């Protein structure tokens, strides 16, 4: 069986091979945090192409519209590793690494004991052992892979995730979000170079990210709608 892989096509879509499972999830507020809810059932294929220009009428699949629109989609994301990009945030009892690649899916927020919304940075600043579990949970839930809890030995503590691609819808923001890739699926650039192999990352599908092919949350101010947001 062919190994799972995502290949960026120059001026075109993402070519996904190796029978990568594809699903759709909806970001839902719950209390002062967020959860995933199942979305549409999507066709499963061993080999398929996902829209990268943001204009396909068959989203999330490519329908060739990028050719009519003259989509360029040049890759501009840094090829530095997570370790090279990330800064270290020292708490009193644990350490978090943050590479600032935010897709604005907001799983870094949770409800505190007072019933208020609190983000991972304010929780980390408290530095108490009781908050350690919450920090680990929120860092591991970030689909962009922006946040990682670091062990005392310097190891990044990653959750166990099954390989797959999740098409993200965000009705609270009235936008279609990026493609959440999970489970260490290799990403190859249009020129054949390999990006760092990561457990979690978000790919742009609105065509507007300033860090292509990585999602940078531009879909939010751009009000990107792939035609499948709940109205």
Mean pLDDT: 93
**What's the helix-strand series?**
EEEEEHHEEEEHHEEEEEE
Q: Quickly count the helices.
A: 4
Radius of gyration: 18 Å
List the strand order in the largest sheet.
4-3-12-13-15
Stretches with pLDDT under 50, minimum 5 residues: none
Distance between the termini: 40 Å
Beta-strand percentage?
25-35%
Structural class: alpha+beta
Structure description:
With 231 residues, this protein is an alpha+beta fold. 13% of the residues lie in helices and 29% in strands. It has helices at residues 65-69, 82-85, 120-126, 129-141; strands at residues 5-8, 14-17, 22-30, 33-38, 47-50, 87-90, 95-98, 109-111, 117-119, 147-150, 156-157, 164-170, 175-182, 187-188, 200-203. The strands form four sheets. Strands 4-3-12-13-15 form a five-stranded mixed β-sheet, with no helix packed on it. Helix 3 (120-126) packs antiparallel against helix 4. The model has no long low-confidence stretch (mean pLDDT 93).
């Amino acid at each position: 069986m062919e190994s799972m892989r995502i290949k960026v096509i120059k001026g075109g879509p993402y070519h996904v091979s190796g029978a990568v499972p594809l699903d759709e999830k909806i970001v839902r507020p719950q209390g002062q945090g967020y959860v995933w809810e199942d979305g549409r059932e999507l066709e499963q294929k061993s080999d398929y192409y996902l829209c990268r220009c943001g204009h396909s009428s068959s989203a999330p699949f490519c329908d060739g519209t990028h050719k009519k629109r003259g989509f360029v989609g040049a890759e501009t994301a840094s090829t530095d590793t997570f370790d090279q990009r990330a800064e270290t945030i020292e708490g009193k009892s644990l350490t978090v690494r943050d590479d600032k690649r935010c897709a604005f899916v907001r799983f870094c927020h949770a409800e505190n004991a007072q019933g208020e919304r609190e983000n991972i940075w304010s929780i980390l600043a408290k530095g108490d052992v009781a908050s350690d579990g919450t920090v680990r949970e929120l860092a591991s839930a970030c689909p962009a892979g922006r946040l990682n809890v670091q062990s005392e030995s310097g190891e990044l503590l990653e959750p166990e995730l099954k390989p797959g691609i999740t098409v993200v819808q965000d009705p609270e923001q009235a936008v279609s979000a990026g493609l959440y890739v999970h489970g260490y699926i290799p990403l190859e650039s249009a020129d054949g170079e390999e990006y760092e192999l990561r457990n979690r990352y978000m790919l742009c599908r609105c065509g507007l990210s300033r860090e292509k092919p990585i999602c940078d949350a531009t879909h939010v101010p751009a009000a990107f709608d792939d035609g499948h947001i709940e109205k």
